[in-house]
Write a structure and sequence with these properties.
With about 180 residues, the protein is mostly helical. Helix content is about 70%, strand content about 0%. Strand 1 and strand 2 form a beta hairpin. The structure holds protoporphyrin IX containing FE. Protoporphyrin IX containing FE binds next to helix 1, helix 3, helix 5 and helix 6.
Length: about 180
């Protein structure tokens, strides 16, 4: 199925920007807690910051299911003809990697929390039912995986942003507009 419109649908645009804000906010809060706060010095404040990180980030799990369904049923606009075949492949691989991060980070984050004996709360409203109990062996795996994936995702998002700005200001094509406009 090909999309003949040069623009993403309104729904796809809204999902993109809402998830971008949530993802970047969760990333910054997680990074702040993981690298600038310690339980010894900051005590319960660190606990509150991690809780905020989780309550925001778990929403991605629900949104990504809707987003993947929407992406499957509403194909993306074509990339500009001015892009080389190699650049098109790189763009598709970059997008695929971003989708994988939208799945892998919340999943490893929940496994990280559960295996450490903590909940995975959503918007301070409810908790995702625990799929694993306290498990130090699993924790030793999912904790570094969550942290390394989060750094990888940080570089991917920076690359994605840089590519969008290059398309808009240097190539002067329709790529950024396809995610912001309808006409
Ligand atoms: C979009 C989803 C997510 C993103 C982008 C993300 C990003 C991050 C980042 C950047 C860090 C800091 C890494 C470091 O120490 O350098 C982190 C840590 C952490 N994340 Fe996530 N995360 C996400 C989802 C989740 C979820 C859903 C949970 C749990 C329900 C979670 C639990 C944690 C915990 C417990 C830490 C350790 C914080 C600390 O040690 O202070 N994350 N995350």
């Amino acid at each position: 199925m090909k999309n003949s419109s040069p623009y993403y649908t309104r729904t796809a645009q809204m999902l993109h920007w809402i998830m971008a804000i949530i993802f970047i906010a969760a990333w910054l809060i997680g990074f702040y807690s993981g690298n600038f706060l310690s339980y010894d010095v900051d005590g319960s404040f660190k606990g509150q910051v991690i809780s905020l990180h989780k309550n925001i980030a778990t929403t991605i799990i629900f949104l990504v299911v809707i987003r993947l369904f929407w992406r499957y049923t509403h194909p993306a606009p074509q990339l500009p003809d001015s892009m080389s075949a190699t650049m098109k492949v790189l763009a598709h691989l970059g997008h695929l990697a971003l989708y994988l991060m939208l799945l892998a980070l919340p999943i490893t984050g929940c496994l990280f929390s559960w295996s450490a004996g903590h909940p995975a709360p959503v918007l301070y409203l409810f908790e995702i039912p625990r799929l694993v109990q306290d498990n130090p062996e699993l924790l030793a795996i999912v904790k570094p995986v969550h942290i390394y994936l989060s750094w990888f995702a940080g570089f991917l998002v920076i690359g994605h942003l840089a590519a969008a700005l290059k398309h808009h200001f240097i190539d002067k094509d329709n790529v950024l507009k396809s995610m912001t406009r309808q006409k």
